[in-house]
Amino acid sequence: MHFPMRQVAVWMGLVLVAFGAIGYLSFQAWADREVGHSAQIIEIEPGASLSSITSTLVTRGVVRDPRLFKLLASWESVDTRLKAGEYELSNPTSPRQVLTKLSSGQVMLHPVRLREGITVLMMLQELKEVPHIQHTLSDFTSYAQVHAELAGKLALPIKSAEGYFFPDTYFVRRGLTDVELLRRAHQVMQDKLAQVWAMRPAANSSAASSLGINSIEELLVLASIIEKETGVDEDRGQISQVFHKRLRRNMRLQTDPTVIYAIGETFDGDIRRKDLRIDSPYNTYRYVGLPPTPIALPSYQSLVAAVQPAPGEFLYFVARGDGSSQFSETLAQHNAAVRRYQLGQ
Q1: Which end of the chain is less enclosed by CB atoms within 10 A, N or C?
Q2: Which residues contact 240 (CB under 8 A, 6 or more apart)?
Q3: Cα 28 to chain center, whole Å?
Q4: Residues 218, 132 within the same domain
Q5: Are 124 and 183 in contact, with CB atoms under 8 Å apart?
């Protein structure tokens, strides 16, 4: 029985198509078949080739067939788009899932905490202890050194770097530089300041007349003082009210944290009577008004408190010893509170 050549060719073509379809479907099934391996972290170095990455994955038991893995990478056009970084691979993982993660840059992120209530000098010293970031800044030992170097490295459009980094937990990839992290924290603080400044009372409202600040810069300075004066959220608004009232009356703020900042790196934990006479613009026992710059990194709660003081007519407050404050309207009431809570009388 003879078949015409044309018919034979058709049948052969159909057979090839069938084999091709089977091969394609098998290849796709392989790409989506999960491979059992230990959950692990794999680091891809910058500039690593597809071959070296594949070799690492084979060695770690994540990939079983290197030829098919590289073919899949080429097929999906990601062979030149695999990104460096740390990757957390769960168990099990399919070859396609691995390629998707490596090509989209789904790197591991590490938490880095910038604490509220600390100076920028302390913040930088703490950053030096973080192993996940690349350290490019100097080992800072003084406020002056901090402001000079950060102003240059970050191109800050401000006279002081103090307080201008938003305290929060930032999630960063390994190898991020300290400068990149600080740029991010500075931008977040700028955004928060704009947001909070818009929350102040309307200019024609009665509440607006209770404010003693006139700019975003003063908002940040006042918020930093509020942050240092209390760790009790409920007291922030009332402390803000005291400071606003003093500012409006042109009274000295007389707040210890500004004196501590004036003393600087030599502060030993105790404020002495002579310290209250230090000739520094940060000494609010000597000079009226706000200090020239913030004195710490204020939290969001302190920023809000600075533009939304609580109602009241208090002019004084003293620490009760449990983190909260006792507020007084008159000096006589304040002196009585000092005797009770500070002197134990």
Answers
A1: N
A2: 222, 226, 305, 306, 308, 309, 310
A3: 42
A4: no
A5: no
Name the residue among 27, 108, 136, 144 with its Cα closest to residue 75. Answer: 27
Is 8 contained in some domain?
A: no
Residue 243 sits in the same domain as residue 183: no
Q: Which helix (H) or strand (E) holds 52?
A: helix 50-59
DSSP states of 133-171 as a string? SB--S----SHHHHHHHHHHHTT-SSS--TT-S--SEEE
Six token digits for residue 124 = 């930088």
Which of 135, 164, 195 is where one domain is finished? 195
251-254: which pairs have CB atoms within 8 A and are 24 or more residues apart?
251/288, 251/315, 252/284, 252/285, 252/286, 252/287, 252/288, 253/225, 253/284, 253/289, 253/290, 254/284, 254/285
Question: How many C-beta atoms lie closer than 10 Å to residue 121's C-beta?
Answer: 20
Give the burial string for 152-187 (b: 16+ CB within 10 Å, else e).
ebbebebebbbbbbbbbebebbbebebbbbbbbbbe
191 and 273 belong to one structural domain: no
